[in-house]
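Title: [Solved] Elongation factor-1 alpha 3D structure

Original question kept below for reference.
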Amino acid sequence: IAFVPISGFEGDNMIERSTNLDWYKGPTLLEALDMIQEPKRPSDKPLRLPLQDVYKIGGIGTVPVGRVETGVLKPGMVVTFGPTGLTTEVKSVEMHHEALQEALPGDNVGFNVKNVAVKDLKRGFVASNSKDDPAKGAASFTSQVIIMNHLGPELK
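Solution (posted by the thread starter after getting help):
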């Protein structure tokens, strides 16, 4: 994570170096942004889409929403929701109120599913392609956890 001192008010070190910050020898904000590596988008891996929420939209039906982590989500695809194993067809996929032919890793999407009630899906379920290594439950897993703004007693 780069530290880049700037002044938005004066424009110091945003696009060009500033004599007001002559002590700083690093990149300008624009240079630092240009150096950021684009994240890997693993579209070649099996679909994994954790649900962030599920909505019932009048005239449309049940719309789960979430971020595609790996794989590709397309209309017509048959998906399985873990951990319940509920399987259904994706009728449509949208991002920012625009229909998509496919959703790729990093896309936050809503997708309409056939014959599924809102009560049958929950935040935290994972959508996966029924025909390509559908998600399964695990007895244990390893995780890296970051806790931000924890104001309560220390965790034990």
